[in-house]
Every structure is written in C-alpha cells, then in structure tokens.
Amino acid sequence: MGAGGDGRPVRDSFLKKTFSIDKITNLSGVKDDLIVLRNIWFSKAKGDDHAARLETFYGPQAHAYDNFRTNFLWGRKPMLAACAARVAGRSNMIWVDLGGGTGENVDMMSKYISLDKFKAIYVVDLCHSLCEVAKKKAKAKGWKNVHVIEGDACRFQPPEGAATLVTFSYSLSMIPPFHNAIDNAISMLAPDGFLGVTDFFVSSKYDLPMRQMSWFRRFFWRSVFDVDTIDLGPERRAYLEHKLERVWEINSQGSIPYVPYLRAPYYVWIGQNHQTGHAAHENKVDRPALFPPTFLYTQSWEDPEPDMKVMDINENDTVLTLTSGGCNALNLLLHGAGEVVSVDCNPAQTALLELKAVAIQQLGFEDTWQLFGEGVHPHIEDMFEKKLSPFLSQTSNNFWSKRLWYFKDGLYYQGGMGKLCWVLQCLFTFLGLGKALKRIVNAPTLEEQKRLWNANFLVNFIKHGPAILVWLFCKFISLVFCNRVVLWFGGGVPGKQYALIKNDGIPIEQYVARTLDGVAEHSHLRKSNYFYYNCLTGKFLRDNCPSYLREANFNKLKAGIIDRLTVATGTFLDELKARKYSKVILMDHVDWLDVEQARVVAQTLSEQVVPGGIVIWRSAAMTPPYAEQIKQAGFDVRCISRADQGYQDRVNMYSSFYVAKRKTKND
C-alpha cells in the first residue's frame, strides 16, 4: 500500500490526478479551474469565422489555460520527448508549433532539449488571447528565439523556408480544414524533419488493433468533445498516414480534472517524409491465459555456448528463436547472424527484450550496464521518459511505464523466476545458510566451490544422512517448492513438461538435485556461470555476464548489428510460417505441446527450414517423443547430450539436447 502501510500515498496520488487536490488547497487555483470548467461545460463557441469562435471560447480562460491543462493534456510530454529524442544532436533547427496556444509546449520542450539548439521557434495560433499569453511568457522567460505568430496554421510558412520539427499539440482536432493544415505542415517539413501530433481521438469502426474502441466509446467521446467544437474523428490520423510515414505511435488514456473514473483517450503520433515505406503496424496481443502479468524469465535460461558449437552461425543465416529473457537472441547477432527473429507469446518477454534493444541503441554502456548488469538504476524515471520511452512500441511502453520500480527494487528479483529466486534466498537465510551460500557463490576456484558445496551441512545431510529423514525432507521440499503451481509461475515448467519428467521415472526433487549438484561440481559460479550467479545474487559481474553486457560486444551491437533483430509477440508457429529460415532454436517449446501440436510443428519445420538448415532443442525428457516426428519430417536427428551421461552445460537443467539437420536432395 506504500509508505506507512495505510494506503495514503496511493489515495493522494489518485486524488491529485483526478481532482487536482493540490489546487483544492489553493483558492485562486480553484477559482481559475472553475473559470475553465465554466467555459468548457457551459459556454458555446460563437462567431462568423474560426478565429472568432476560438476567441469566444478561449478568451475568458486564457490566463488559466496552462494550469488546468497540465492535468488533462497527457500526450504533450511523451510527444515532445519523442520529438526531442529524434532530433537530438542537431543544431540551428527550426520548430513550428501549429496551434501552439500559450507557448507552454516551448517551456515543456526545454526539459528535453536545450532551446538554444533551435535557430527559431514559431508558436502559431489564431486565438488573440492565447497569443498574448504566449508573448508575455516568452518575454518573462527571456526566449529570444521564440516568435509568437497570430496567424492561420493552414497558411503560415517559416521565413527560413523549411522546418526541422512541426507539431500539433491538441490543436489538429480544432482545425476544421484539417487537410489544409496537414498539407501546409508537410510543405514546410524538411526532408529529414519530423511531424509530431498529439490529440484526443476515437477510432474508426474498423481500425488498427492498438487503436480500436467499442461503438459506445466512439459515440460517447466524440459527442462529449463535439460540444466544444472539437472533432475527434479518425480521419485526421488517417490523412496523416496517407501523406507521411509513421515512425512511432502510442494510444492511451488519461484522467480528467474533477471528473472521477472517466479517462479520455489520446494518441501521440510521429511521422516523417517517406523513407523506406510505412512502418509495420503493431498488433494488439493479449497476455496468454494463466500467465502472470509480467515476464517469467529475466534472463535466457539456456546456455548459448553449446548452441554455437553445433549451429555454425554466419551472415547468411536467418534465425528464429524463442525470446525468453532475450540474452541469447542478442548473442546470435554477436555471432554474425544476418537476421534474428525473436518471438514469444508473452508480451512481457517481448517488452524486456525490446527495452534491452532500445537501451543498446539509445544509451551509453554504463547506463545499460546499470539497467541489466546491476539490475538497478537511480535515474530510471528521467531516463525512461527522455531516452527509452520515445522508441518503445505501445505495448512495451504500457508495460514498463507501470513497472519502473523494477529498477529500484532490482530487476532480477522480478517476474516469476525472479520472485522464486528471492524466496529461496530468504529461505536460505532463515535456515542459517546465507553466509555459506555467499562463500560458495564467491569461491575463487572451482575446487574451493566444490569443497564448500559438499561441506555444507544441508548438502551433506542429503547425500549422507539417514535415508528415512532424507526421504521426508525431500518430500517436504517437493511439496512446498516443486509443486505444479510453483514450477509453472516460478520456473515456467508447464504441466506437459512436468509429465515428461515423471515419465522418465525421476522424482521432481531428484531432478532438481541432479541439476544443482552438477552445476556446483562442474561449473565455477564466480568465474563463468552467470546464470546461477545472477539467481543467487540478483546481479551480474562485468567478467561474468551475458555476451551483450560486455562493453566490446555492446559497442558492436550499437554500431548497427542490433538493427538485424526483429522482436515479435505471437505464437512460435505463426512466426515459423512467416518466412524461410536456415537456423531454428526451439528451446524447450515443443515440450509444452501435445502430440498433434508437435506433429504440426514438425511438418512446418520441414516446409520452412531450408535444405541443410539446422534445428536445435532441449527437453526435460531423456528421449522426447517428438524427436521421431521431426525425423520423419525430413531431418537427420541426433542427441548431443543427455543428463544420464553426466553434466551437460552451465544451466544443466534439461535432460537432453538435440540437433536436427534438414536433409538435402543428396542425402
């Protein structure tokens, strides 16, 4: 419930956003808000032309306009941040804010980019009263490069001839001849310039999935805003996308001052002159049933080293992989893959990899290391708003904007697996094993690690204690920590995979003990096993981490390799059908499927994997039943390693590792 435990911070935050409680304590603020509300609810725009109508509507409220809109026009900050992020590094720019009103956008923009970077800023508005407020603001702020123009957005042209940035901030919906306004904006836009728009909206009856609304919401919001001569129809954005290439977009909703519960829909849209064709539209993908509302895995939970030994990754490869934590998808790029397609049915896993990719593109190494090496960052809110959010998809934006606290409490203690690791660490501490665990994790050599592991009283008890007591203890552990609920939500082990383990005749507690004992005996946690080091400490080390977190590799990705990554949310089968692949990494995906589903995957692999292509997978079963199906689909299948043959890799969690090669005509 927040600090104090009585729910007050949550309550006050809600009241502040919904009722502007900070203004309620200020009588002049309340008076100003009432003036604005009176004009919104009870005044009608009157006049023979658009300028006159604007003046009758905004004139009486111009002096109070900015304070009220701060808690109403939620799209302004993300729009300005997204624009600033895309023109960062430029100078002598021209910015034209069409329908700029009081010039508040200029003040907001100064938080994202220095106004000195602009040679000239033009605030254009047809309303005299709003322009007067803007002129006073520019003078008070000392903005020498800001010019307030009382004029028509459909006609104004900057004296310089071309603009680096043109924006419409909650103004396009109030311009009746919007075609003219958009055409005029585009005519002044420099070839490498950007057009930014934010406004209220309703979708069309059949719209993009991320915009779609029910008929009632379309009718309700359009009717409400129509009273104030504001048209929320979808045709404005449709025309924008007809004329320009969409670069970035989010659709959301924000609270309304003094109006509880209702949240008005708004969008942010960034476009530019056509470069490479329209950007792909983002599909709306719901979280799968029974998944937690976050990711299961904070890191990829398969050792990539054995994969690279059998896959022969090269620049001609198009590789399909499951996303999981995303680390291994980035590793494929570093090994030279021409293109990597990473897919997951859980949008939260996509959001995690997308954040990693955007961080590589937009941040320096140290900030990226703090985010994903340490798992914490002291300035995550500011950095997210200015550098990360402007480049994330809408789904990932929605996910992370509500979970930035992950980077306060520690990223690697979040999600299903992270919570399980945290609980186990607490249990070890409760049992008095906390210090022993730290000594094992930080053992300077593998030999010392093995000695400490076997000298630990719990391990020693399990290996050499009285049989009946060991049996009772193992059954207790199995009941509490290895039941199906914990295995699914904490370790991502579904029922079908659990059944494969049982079919091999191995009790689940023995399966877990085999995994951990093999790692402790054969893999040096401090030096090379970043998987378990992370689980036991909640962070990585600079010399013991996934490949993308090493500075030299980070620089390679940032130099352009990261652009070869495609991150998708959806089913593995749909992505497999979408194109041809030379390499496919199934991970343990087919363990999750029934016999018929596995047969379909095997058949689709035979159709989509090119001759000579390679498919690899791991399984919780010694001999997974679908291996024969893949063989019959036209692959040479061989088992690389099995758990009954001893330690396999740094994760050591699966019972078998397979590779299959698609047969050629000569085979």
From TrEMBL:
Gene3D superfamilies linked to this entry: Vaccinia Virus protein VP39 (3.40.50.150)
Top-level taxon of origin: Eukaryota
A Pfam family of this chain: DUF3419
SUPFAM superfamilies for the chain: S-adenosyl-L-methionine-dependent methyltransferases (SSF53335)
Protein name per Swiss-Prot or TrEMBL: Methyltransferase domain-containing protein
